[in-house]
Amino acid sequence: MKKTVALIIISFITLGYKLSAQKHKLDSTINWIWNTNNIKCLANYKTIFNYNVYGNMAIQITQKWDYSNNVWINDSKVTFAYDTQNNLIENVEFNWNKTNKNWVNSVKYLQSFDTTNFKTLYKVQDWSNNKWLSRYQIIYNYDTNNNLVTETWQGWDTSNIWINTSKTSYYYDTTNNNTSYIIDWWDKNSQTWKLHFRCTNNFDLNKNNRLFTSEIRDSGNTAWFNNYQNIYTFDVYNNTTSKMHRIKDITGKSWINNWRFLYYYDVYNNKIATTYQYWNAKDSQWIEENSWQSSFDANKDIISNVRSYIKNNIITKEDSIHFYYNAPTDLNIITASYQKLSVYPNPSNELITIEKSSTQKETLSVYNLLGEVIYIETWLPSQVTKNIDLSAMPKGIYIIRLGDAAEKIVLD
């Protein structure tokens, strides 16, 4: 398992989108939550991203919407620092003090790298009594093929020394696939490592992990017992199309379904939908509980992710996150890359009507000439037409986009 360095940006509900691989820098995100009283999505959090001259994330500020004053107020901040090789060596979390109106230290994360840019140490510190106190650290070791072979966790003891807590040992086949790893827990009494978990991976010829199995050591530390397993499927492009989680039945002899994720992609291999289902053993069927729908722009950058909560096949509420970039979107590229959308009247001076031909839940967006999103909302499958009041917008050309369809409109 070769180590790669990634920027820790934010914990989204988007199931692992690779923001660092996008063509345009992420400028901000806005998280919307479902309000049961108003029966609509309301703004919740906004995160703003700033970069250094090398394009690395430098500052990340999260703000919460104040409904009383209709303004964004600071909530938290993260700063990032790098070495000369652009390895992330420090990020510090701050909380906003509403009373003093200043940033207060919270948690610090430190990383060290060797001369070949492999991470050797990860350390976490907490701010307490006006100083940084160590919480835990992870020590990494690699083999001659640069595969991670051990990961040792240590906690900071009250006697001001590092104490072992757990250790993960990784094993590989001749093609450097991580075929298994074992987690040991530190026994303070005997001062030795004790076996606890063992996990195995089974790869296909395309190096896709088809089967992950977790085993746990018995109380007498004499034998391994199956704990759970994950089964994966892939399409011809090696995209993961499903992940099924299974556990042992009460007898411990047979595997039974527990939950699964289903993943869907567009023709560009963008993950456009994810479905979470749990297994109903009584009726022997999968029950859908959550779904995520993602939209991408013409640059293949993600622009929205909507999570739906489902009960009895009905969407009960939704929350979402929308992504904005600091590089303008070319409006000609948008209209040339997507199908025609029915929008009328066009030109218009106030209210426009949009017709939807598909029965899918999609994101409706309006762009100005700078490529900025000036209006966005989720269009539910039950809606066929929608009216939008653009009378407050300046005169000019705009782009209306709905899923894979787009159209220019003139406001006069």
Tags for this model:
412 residues, mainly beta, 2 domains, 20-stranded antiparallel β-barrel, 5-stranded mixed sheet, disordered N terminus
Give a verbal description of the structure.
With 412 residues, the chain is mainly beta. It folds into two domains: 19-327; 328-412, Immunoglobulin-like (Sandwich). It is built from one helix and 28 strands. The chain has one helix at 331-337; strands spanning 26-35, 40-51, 57-66, 71-82, 88-97, 102-113, 119-128, 131-142, 148-156, 162-172, 178-187, 192-203, 209-217, 224-234, 240-248, 255-265, 271-280, 285-296, 302-311, 314-325, 339-340, 342-344, 351-355, 362-367, 373-379, 385-389, 396-402, 405-411. A hairpin with a 4-residue loop joins β11 (178-187) and β12. Mean pLDDT is 85; it is low at 1-23 and 327-337.
Short characterization:
This protein is mainly beta and 412 residues long. The chain has 2 domains: 309 residues; 85 residues, Immunoglobulin-like, CATH 2.60.40.
Give unreliable regions as ranges: 1-23, 327-337
- Kindly estimate the percentage of residues that lie in beta strands according to DSSP: over 45%
How would you state the average pLDDT, rounded?
85
Q: Globular, elongated, flat, extended or rod-shaped: what is the shape?
A: globular
The CA-CA distance between the termini, in Å, is: 59 Å
Structural class by helix and strand composition: mainly beta
Estimate percent helicity: under 10%
Number of E-type strands = 28
In this structure, how is the largest beta sheet organized?
A: 20 strands, antiparallel, barrel
- How many domains make up the coordinates? 2
The helix count comes to 1
The arrangement of helices and strands along the chain is: EEEEEEEEEEEEEEEEEEEEHEEEEEEEE
Radius of gyration, rounded?
Answer: 25 Å
